[in-house]
Amino acid sequence: MDKYKYFMNQDNTVYNNYKPLRNHLNKLVLDDSFYVIWSYIQHYQFNNKFPQDIEVALEFLNQDHMQKIRMCSEWELETITREIIINAQNSTFSDKSLKAWSYFSGSINKLKSIENEIGGMFVNKDNILVELFRISHRQFPWQIRPNGEYLTRYYKIFSQESLNKILVETIGLSAKELYLSGMLFIGAYLKSPAINLPINIQVSAIKNEEVEKFIKIFSLDINSLREKVKNEVQYNDKFAYSFSSLRSFPIIKMGYRQKESLVCPMPTLLFWQITDGIYYKILEEIKKIKDEKEQKEILGNFGNSLGKQFQNYVGEVLEKSIQNISFKFFKEQEYKEGKNRKDTVDWMVIDNNAMLFIECKAKRMNLPAKIELNDDSFIKAELDKMADFIKQVYKSIDDYKNNKYPNIKYDKSKKIFPVILTLEHWYLFGDKFLNELDAILKNKIKENNLDEKYLEIYPYSICSIEEFEKMTQIINKIGVDNFMSKKFDQDRRLWAFQSFMNSDFNEEYKKTKVLFDDDYKKIFEEVLKEH
C-alpha cells in the first residue's frame, strides 16, 4: 500500500469515528448551543455562575479548576464550537440541547473518544514528545485570561508611530481605534453572547464608522464561516490542531433568538485576535497587495517596525521593574569593527555580580511547526532560526569580551547570562527540542569560529515577554546571579520560566505587580467609565 492510500485509509477511519459526534451535534440549533458554550467559557475564564436554565452536574461544579478541565476543557469547547458551526441547524427550535447535562457531556465524551482513537492511530514512542509539544501549543494559551496587562502590552507596541501607520494602511484602524473598539465589544460579550443589530454606540470615544470597520475585520456571516471551517477540518492526526477560521473571525453574524445579531460564543478568541492575533491580520492584508514590490516593502517595514517597537517596549519594562540603585541597564548601541557597522546586544542588565545579555525577537513560530506530528522539517526550520538568534548573542558576547563594545569594558568578574526574549511563547522546554536546538547551535558556533565552551560558560535561556515582566521584578530584589544560576540547577533548565518562578520563588512571584496598570486605566478610561 503506497503512502497516499495509507493516509486516505487513516482519514476514512477517523471520519468514521467522527460520525457519532457529527450526528449528535446536528440535532442542535446554533443560537442555543452558542449560548451554552459562552456560559461554560465565562465560568472557566471568570468563575461566573451558570444561568439557571443550564443544567450542570454537581460532580462538575464541586471540582476545582484543574479537575474541571479534565472533565471538559476550554480547548475541547473550542473544537466543539467549530463542530457546532459545521453541523448544528440554523433554525429556531430543537428538542435536543446542550443545556441538558447529559447531552452536553455526551458531546464532550464523543469528542474525547475521537481524540483517543486518533492518539492510538498516530501517536507512538517515536513521536510522543512531539505530541506533547503540540498539546502545549493547544492548551497553554488558555491559561491566559483576557486581562488589561496583556491588552496594554500590545497597545503600547502597536500604538507607536511606525506600527500605527501600518495598522491604518492595512486594516483601516489606528491602534487607539482598534483597541477601544475591542474593549467595547469584549465588555459587551462578557455580559451576553450576542449583540443585536443595529448597534447603538453609547461611548463618546468611539465612532460608528470605526465600529463598522472593526466588525468587518473580525466577523463573518454564519454561512461563510461554516464554509471556511468545513474546508479546514482535517480527519487525521491534525483533527484537533488544524487552523480554524473561528480564530480569525470570532464574531458571527447570524440570527440569535430571532433577531439579527453579532454572536461571540468564545470572547477569549476575540481578545486573542486583537492582541497577538493582530500580527496575522496585518500579514493577511499585506498579502492582498497585488504589486509585489510594494508588498515586499510594506512587509519589510512591518517586520522591522515590530522588532524595533518590541525592543523599545522591553526598555519600558526594565525602567519600571529595575528600581534597585545597584543595577544598570543599557540599550543597543552602534559601533564599528573596521569598516563593518555592528550593534551591541539589544539590552544589557548589570548588577554587582552578573549581567543579562538580552536579544529581543518578535518572530513567531510558524503554525506547521506547532501542529505537525510526523514531518519534523517544520520544527527543525524554527529551531534553526532560534539557533541563529542565540548565535547572534554569543557573537555579541565575544565582542564584549574582546572590548569592542563602545559603552562598557569587559569585566571578567561578572557572570554572563544570554536571554532570547520573545513576544510570543515558543514553549521550547523539555529535553527533546532543547537538545536538538543545542546540536544545531553547536554547529553554528563552530562555523562562526566562536569558543565552543560558551554554551557551558554562558548558558542561554528562552523567555517570553510575559514571563520577563515578572522575572525582572524578582531579579530586582535578589540579583541576576541568584535568580539565573538557580534556573540552571539540575533539570530546571528544561522548565518554562513560569514553572520555575512558581516553584523556586513563589513568595517573590506573588508580590510581582502589573507594570503598566496606570497606562491601562488612562488608555481605556472612557470605555471603562461607560461600562
* Number of E-state strands: 11
Helix content percent band? 55-70%
Percentage of β-strand residues: 5-15%
Task: Average the pLDDT over all residues and give the rounded result.
Answer: 93
The helix-and-strand class reads alpha/beta
Name the overall outline: globular
Uncertain residue ranges: 1-9
Compute the number of helices: 25
Compact description:
With 531 residues, this protein is an alpha/beta fold. It is built from 25 helices and eleven strands.
Plain-language structure description:
Helices cover 58% and strands 10% of the residues. The chain has 25 helices and eleven strands. It has helices at 3-25, 30-46, 58-61, 65-71, 74-87, 101-122, 128-139, 148-158, 161-170, 175-189, 208-218, 222-232, 245-248, 267-274, 278-287, 292-321, 367-371, 377-401, 431-447, 454-457, 465-478, 480-487, 497-504, 506-510, 517-529; strands at 194-196, 219-221, 251-256, 259-263, 328-331, 334-337, 340-343, 347-350, 354-361, 415-422, 461-464. A five-stranded mixed sheet has the order 5-8-9-10-11, sandwiched between helices. It has a four-stranded mixed sheet with strand order 1-4-3-2. It has a two-stranded antiparallel sheet with strand order 6-7. Residues 1-9 have low confidence and may be disordered.
What key phrases describe this protein's structure?
single chain, 531 residues, 25 helices, 11 strands, globular
Secondary structure elements and their pairing?
Elements (H helix, E strand, L loop, with lengths): L2 H23 L4 H17 L11 H4 L3 H7 L2 H14 L13 H22 L5 H12 L8 H11 L2 H10 L4 H15 L4 E3 L11 H11 E3 H11 L12 H4 L2 E6 L2 E5 L3 H8 L3 H10 L4 H30 L6 E4 L2 E4 L2 E4 L3 E4 L3 E8 L5 H5 L5 H25 L13 E8 L8 H17 L6 H4 L3 E4 H14 L1 H8 L9 H8 L1 H5 L6 H13 L2
Parallel strand pairs: 2-3, 9-10, 10-11
Antiparallel strand pairs: 1-4, 3-4, 5-8, 6-7, 8-9
